[in-house]
């Protein structure tokens, strides 16, 4: 039966939900507080000629993204050119660096050159990781997670032991590799899941397969091309987008959602999907209809926030790759500072993305587009003087690696973004950037529910509910919710 559906927010989960709901024949209206779609994946241009993706920059799990377009009869190539990076990234240690090449055979050769026998061990690791990926990303994470009974299919039950849900990621990696640098290389993909690798289930070795084995890609024109493509798919199926339209309330009648308040006016709908920050979405409801109390949210373990800098550099930077990880300091010290001590890291790790190494459209000729990211605790003082202190440290380490002198003097455009900005722009609880941590007690059924427990036609999508943080999971989240709408 055709329904009139409202969707709040145009992040990846909202775009996905819009496309799938529209395809099912519903009348779909999507409301966005900003002037453009994308949420954390927005993009902006500067007068100097730089084009900055504001959020996601790692295009991993390309098959999951391709599956979205395939569901509508499209290929990614119908919308943008996707380039596979080689090397995928470089990781900088205190005394050396590793450039991860594309292609699993090349990676195995590299591992063997660092640790005898590591090629065979990596082959075994990736074989099991592929199995987890196939079960995890194609079956396990596609459930609405109302009940553990959903996971009692013969396929999942048979696979339970091999999914390694009860083994921690650090112990799991150490079974395969003894070289500390290889261990760090294998642990890197999970650090944004919200906890130390010793507290993350070994299930998430699937990320090593989804990234390293399937390759690291980049859409020419920036990650924002994926946003525009998903919006186009939704619109071609009949969805309507409304920008500069923040929602001030979700209205109810007789234990059902019946509409939204926008610009002081009530707009009536048969169902609502809130893909905005889950906690904020609940604040739009009368307290009696909220799924969770403030105490519930205070007790959650959140993935990190981050300090971002968008920099326009007026000359080329030698020896810097598209993706570079600066891991000269110890991973656990940074993690303990942001997750246990809840303070600015004393010996930080950080990441740089320089898309102008691959894409000439994001910076003027002869110049560089530089994006810096340092993971941080949520709910932390992020005044400008502190941001600048860490910028100086990051620039100094980039200078040491690249050999460039006085990088600060070459900055012709600069913008910082941090905890308070995430709160202001995205209503992000605590200023989080990546949603809830993927710890075992915040997995699947133990995550915030996708459906309101008291209002059966109100659903939630995005990184604070199932299946979790990241671009591919957010796309899947929108599909899950759209399928639930069809059951109303």
General description of the model:
The structure is a single chain. With 488 residues, the chain is an alpha/beta fold. It is 32% helix and 18% strand. It contains 15 helices and 19 strands. The strands form five sheets. The protein has a seven-stranded mixed beta sheet. The protein is globular and about 65 Å long. The protein starts with a strand and ends with a helix.
Radius of gyration: 22 Å
Provide the spatial order of strands within the biggest beta sheet. 7-6-15-16-17-14-18
Percentage of helical residues?
Answer: 25-40%
Main sheet attributes: strand count, strand direction, barrel closure: 7 strands, mixed
| Mean pLDDT rating | 96
Low-confidence stretches: none
- Tally of contiguous helical segments: 15
Number of strands: 19
Q: Roughly how many Å apart are the termini?
A: 9 Å
What structural class do you assign from the helix and strand content? Answer: alpha/beta
Taken as a percent bin, the fraction of beta residues is 15-25%
Shape: globular
């Amino acid at each position: 039966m055709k329904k009139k559906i409202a969707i709040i927010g145009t992040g990846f989960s909202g775009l996905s939900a819009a496309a799938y709901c529209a395809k099912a024949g519903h009348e779909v209206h999507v409301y966005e507080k900003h002037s453009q779609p994308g949420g954390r994946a927005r993009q902006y241009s500067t007068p100097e000629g730089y084009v900055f993706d504001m959020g996601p920059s790692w295009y991993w799990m390309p098959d999951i993204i391709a599956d979205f377009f395939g569901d509508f009869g499209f290929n990614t190539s119908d919308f943008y050119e996707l380039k596979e990076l080689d090397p995928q990234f470089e990781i900088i240690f205190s005394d050396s660096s590793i450039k991860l090449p594309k292609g699993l055979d090349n990676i195995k050769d590299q591992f063997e050159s660092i640790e005898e026998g590591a090629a065979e061990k990596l082959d075994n690791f990736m074989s099991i990781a592929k199995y987890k990926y196939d079960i995890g990303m194609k079956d396990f994470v596609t459930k609405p997670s109302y009940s553990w009974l959903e996971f009692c299919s013969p396929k999942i039950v048979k696979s339970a032991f091999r999914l390694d849900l009860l083994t921690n990621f650090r112990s799991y990696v150490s079974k395969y590799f003894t070289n500390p640098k290889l261990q760090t290389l294998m642990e890197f993909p999970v650090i944004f899941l919200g906890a130390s690798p010793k507290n993350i289930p070994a299930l998430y070795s699937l990320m090593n397969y989804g990234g390293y084995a399937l390759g690291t890609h980049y859409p020419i024109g920036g990650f924002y091309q994926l946003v525009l493509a998903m919006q186009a798919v939704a619109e071609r199926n009949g969805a309507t987008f409304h920008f500069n339209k923040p929602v001030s309330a979700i209205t109810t009648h007789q234990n059902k959602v019946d509409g939204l308040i926008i610009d002081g006016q009530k707009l009536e709908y048969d169902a609502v999907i809130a893909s905005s920050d889950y906690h904020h979405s609940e604040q739009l409801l009368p307290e009696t209809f909220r799924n969770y109390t403030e105490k519930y949210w205070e007790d959650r373990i959140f993935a990190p926030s981050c300090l971002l800098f968008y920099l326009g550099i007026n000359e080329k930077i030698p020896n810097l790759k598209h993706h570079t990880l600066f891991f000269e300091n110890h991973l656990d010290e940074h993690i303990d500072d942001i997750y246990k001590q809840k303070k600015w890291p004393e010996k930080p790790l950080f990441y740089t993305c320089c898309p102008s190494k691959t894409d000439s459209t994001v910076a003027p000729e002869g110049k560089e587009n530089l994006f810096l990211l340092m993971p941080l605790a949520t709910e932390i003082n992020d005044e400008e003087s502190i941001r600048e202190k860490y910028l100086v440290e990051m620039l100094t380490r980039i200078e040491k690696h690249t050999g460039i002198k006085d990088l600060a003097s070459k900055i012709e455009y600069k913008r910082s973004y941090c905890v308070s900005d995430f709160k202001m722009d995205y209503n992000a609880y605590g200023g989080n950037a990546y949603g809830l941590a993927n710890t075992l007690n915040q997995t699947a059924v133990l995550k915030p529910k996708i459906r309101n427990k008291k209002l059966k036609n109100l659903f939630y999508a995005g990184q604070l509910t199932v299946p979790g943080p990241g671009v591919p999971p957010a796309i899947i989240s929108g599909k899950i919710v759209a399928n639930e709408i069809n059951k109303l």
